[in-house]
Automatic annotation (TrEMBL):
Residues 747-806 form the Beta-mannosidase Ig-fold domain. It comes from Rhizobium viscosum. This is beta-mannosidase. Belongs to the glycosyl hydrolase 2 family. It catalyses: Hydrolysis of terminal, non-reducing beta-D-mannose residues in beta-D-mannosides. Keywords: Glycoprotein, Glycosidase, Hydrolase.
Length: 821
């Protein structure tokens, strides 16, 4: 929803404000929307929080109270005026000319206090006083009837569960812990002329004849009764209504009849047709992008338990995606452009779903506009994660208003698929001594919160797709959805958090896996932005501070010992961590996709990073692709072939998955690769796969792979897709790899600034990875070459290169990574 400024009715208050600590000791300017840490850093008052160990040096910021202030001129203060504020983070009071206009404590609500009596003609001041997040959390914890535990492993800054603000602000197992504060949305003074638009809600009815009725409900708010001129406009079809409004809220409906609708489809399943809806008063206006589609969640019982499948426009869609965390730990460092780039990378890697995880934000409208355009369905959590929460009346009331606002704000987006109660709150009941000792009390308390959310969702949007929690095995099921795979969605963390082997992913058959992940280091060029050369050692204090999961570095290194020979130096350690991350997630996805339609979704943890850190992300902070993201693009391709070993390890099955609407036939060529890089043809197979299905294209006996060789294949599909892969029977460390003998020819194209790299191998080159400090994307990466084979890779820099300054490229491959020769 976009509110359009209307001349004379809207006084923008965003821009430059004065920022000061409440005692006046520290002063600078702050740009709103924005956060205090970035303002202080830009003013030179604190060091860059992301560099080195500066996180430790900036802790005091969250302990203080802060004041932001500005003045504005009002040519005429007559009439009714209100402030329009959202994303106010968090416990804050707003004062206009010294009068208290608002006391806010929920960054997920929109506030519109009436300030008519506080304004004057000429110069006015507005000031926002932010309580310390640390102090506000502690004070609220004290007021609870009983202690409400929070996850100390995730949140070094305590009591974040008391505050309605991004939970990862208090730290997370991938986030910097600095409890930011500020205002990240709208701040404006608006005139109420007869009425304003409070909400716009849409509902679609898809008729049997294919036509669609789009019912638009505008909720108008007025102080006094009157007549408002209201316009509804859908792609130029414009209707004017003169509406009699009462004091308070008035609902006005209009139905658009669309006889030949263009439907909205998820990426890969059809076009993303969008209509533009405008609801307009002379003094206010709301725009919404509308996609016409039906969406259902199929949970019918079956022999294994019950299904978990999304059906869009009558067609089941296998969901391929990743979890989204906030684009940046500090709002001022994020932007619509950067977010679009991250979401584009999701689409480019063949995703069709994003899960907006419950420890961050309900994102800005433009985030969902982008998802609508890209065809990324959104699994939307409510913002509760991994903690226990209060269930006092005031807290639940606050939550109910938040839910009502967010559901009305976002539900018209075609991309919004599911509303989910929270992230991992059921599991969290088992994490704390208090809740283990007195499960009854904490479970009832949880249910009160969960019920409040559910009731508010269904009231705001009857018929909304609702799922109580992620993971959950079903309605009112408080079992262990981390390990139970028969029904519901699953968070499968046994490989990372329980140190199981990659093969262990094949021990479960999820219906829908909404979280599973494996860490890697962020790429070397990103490490260079926070670590000096002397810190480039995985056990250095700087690198340890940029690893937030206790035991994470040990897990990465331990896993490497399990599968690989030890890398020769730090850059190769980083490289290999990314390859092993990709292999872990590939193992899971390939197997679970092959179970289709038993399994209907794989959403790995996590797409992006909030700052430069070791994490489970496939994109680096800043948006570069880690090695894994190139693998994701391949293993999420709608038509994909994978080699999956049997449980007894005696045979290998080539699974063929087809997520498209058409039959596909595939030409599969299977070969053996020797350590010298010779490719020896083994067999050619032709296979067919029905639309929206998975099948077995071929099966080999493991004995057909001679010792000391690899199995390799490539395929082309009748729809033009294709791919390749290799399989190691055993571990990579057991292979006596020989030098890859890579050589490269570079060619620079001035017209578009891209660089072509022709990479040729003399021997076997596995996981060839090209890297440069210059930001940019590669047409492909982390690929294999046999002896004599070459590949042309195009590097497109993010910004045009300076003339005559070609970047230096580094090349990695598995052999050179693990050996000094
Ligand atoms: C999941 C998430 C996050 C966390 C991740 C990695 O459980 O919900 O809380 O960051 O695991 O541990």
């Amino acid at each position: 929803m976009t509110s359009l400024p209307k001349n004379g009715f809207n006084i923008e208050l965003s821009g430059s404000w004065q920022l000061a600590s409440a005692d006046g000791e520290i002063r600078s300017v702050i740009t709103l929307p924005g956060d205090a840490h970035t303002a202080l850093h830009r003013a030179g008052l604190i060091p860059d929080p992301y560099f080195g160990r500066n996180e430790e040096k900036v802790q005091w910021v969250a302990e203080r109270e802060w004041v932001v202030e500005r003045s504005f001129t009002l040519p005429d203060a007559e009439g009714d005026w209100y402030l329009d504020i959202d994303y106010l983070d968090t416990v804050a009071s707003v004062h206009v000319n010294g009068f208290l206009a608002l006391e806010a404590d929920n960054s997920f609500r929109r506030y519109r206090p009436d300030v008519s009596s506080m304004l004057k003609k000429g110069e006015n001041t507005i000031r926002i006083v932010f309580a310390s997040n640390v102090a506000a959390g502690a004070a609220r914890q004290k007021q609870q009837p009983f202690y409400i535990p929070y996850s100390t492993g995730n949140s070094p800054i305590p009591d974040g569960n008391m505050l309605r603000k991004a939970q990862c602000h208090f730290g997370w197992d991938w986030n910097i812990a600095i409890a930011p504060l500020g205002l990240y949305g709208t701040i404006a003074l608006k005139k109420l002329e007869t009425a304003r638009i409070e909400h716009v809600l849409t509902r679609q009815t898809h008729n049997a004849d294919g036509s669609v009725e789009l019912q638009v409900t505008a909720t108008l708010f007025a102080k006094d009764p009157g007549i408002a001129q209201l316009y509804f406009d859908l792609d130029g079809e414009r209707v004017r209504l003169d509406v009699g409004v009462n004091a308070g809220e008035t609902n006005v409906n209009h139905v658009f009849q669309i006889d030949n609708p263009r439907l909205w489809w998820p990426s890969g399943s059809g076009e993303q047709a969008l209509y533009m809806l405008t609801v307009e008063l002379p003094s206010d206006s709301v725009k919404k992008q509308i996609g016409l589609r039906t969406i259902e969640l199929i949970t019918t019982p079956d022999a294994a338990g019950s299904r978990f499948a999304f059906k869009v426009n009558g067609r089941e869609i296998f969901c391929r995606g990743a979890n989204w965390i906030p684009a940046d730990a500090l709002f001022s460092l994020s932007s619509e452009e950067k977010t679009e780039d991250l979401l584009q990378s999701a689409k480019a890697a063949n995703m069709n779903m994003i899960r907006v995880w419950g420890g961050g934000f309900y994102e800005h409208d433009w985030f969902y506009d982008i998802c609508d355009r890209l065809g990324l369905m959104v699994w939307q959590d409510f913002m509760f994660a991994c903690n226990l929460y209060p269930s006092t009346e005031d807290f639940l009331e606050n939550v109910a208003v938040e839910v009502d606002y967010q559901v009305r704000r976002l539900s018209s987006h075609a991309s919004i698929a599911l509303w989910c109660g929270d992230n991992e709150l059921v599991g969290a009941l088992t994490w704390f001594e208090e809740s283990r000792r007195d499960r009854d009390r904490y479970l009832v308390s949880y249910d009160r919160l969960n019920r409040t959310i559910e009731v508010a969702v269904k009231k705001a949007l009857p018929g909304a797709l609702w799922w109580p929690s992620s993971p959950a095995s079903g309605y009112l099921d408080y079992g262990d959805a981390w390990h139970a795979d028969g029904s519901g969605d699953m968070h499968y963390w046994s490989v990372w958090h329980e140190n199981k082997s990659f093969d262990n992913y094949r021990s479960v058959r999820p219906r829908f896996c909404s979280e599973f992940g494996f860490q890697s280091y962020t790429s070397l060029p990103v490490i260079k932005t926070y670590a000096d050369a002397k810190d480039m050692n995985v056990a250095s204090p700087v690198m340890e501070l940029h690893q937030k999961n206790a035991g994470g570095n040990e897990r990465i290194a331990g896993t490497m010992f399990r599968y690989f020979r030890f890398p020769k130096d730090f850059p190769n350690f980083v490289y290999l961590s990314q390859i092993q991350q990709g292999l872990a997630i590939k193992t899971a996805v390939e197997y679970w996709r092959s179970l289709k339609p038993h399994c209907m979704g794989t959403i790995y943890w996590q797409l992006n990073d909030t700052w430069p850190v070791a994490s489970w992300s496939s994109l680096d902070y800043g948006g570069r692709w880690k090695a894994m993201h190139y693998l994701v693009k391949r293993f999420f391709q709608p038509v994909a072939v994978a080699a999956i070993p049997s449980e007894d390890g005696k045979s290998i099955r080539f699974s063929l998955v087809n997520d498209t609407l058409e039959d596909v036939s595939v030409d599969l060529s299977i070969s053996i690769l020797t350590m010298k890089g010779e490719r020896k043809h083994l067999k050619s197979v032709q296979a067919m796969c029905a639309p929206d299905a998975a099948c077995t294209a071929a099966t080999l006996d493991m004995s057909e792979i001679p010792e000391g060789t690899l199995l390799a294949w490539h395929f082309t599909a009748s729809n033009g897709m294709g791919g390749e892969g290799h399989y190691v029977n055993g571990t990579y460390k057991a292979l006596e790899l020989e030098p890859a003998g890579l050589s490269v020819i570079r060619e620079f194209f001035e017209e578009n600034g891209s660089i072509d790299l022709d990479v040729t191998a003399k021997g076997l080159a596995l996981f060839v990875m090209i890297e440069t400090d210059v930001d940019g994307k590669y047409s492909d990466n982390a690929f294999d070459l046999a002896a004599g084979e070459s590949r042309r890779i195009t590097f497109t820099p993010a910004k045009p290169l300076e003339k005559g300054k070609l970047p230096e490229f580094r090349f990695y491959d598995l052999h050179s990574c693990q050996s000094a020769d």
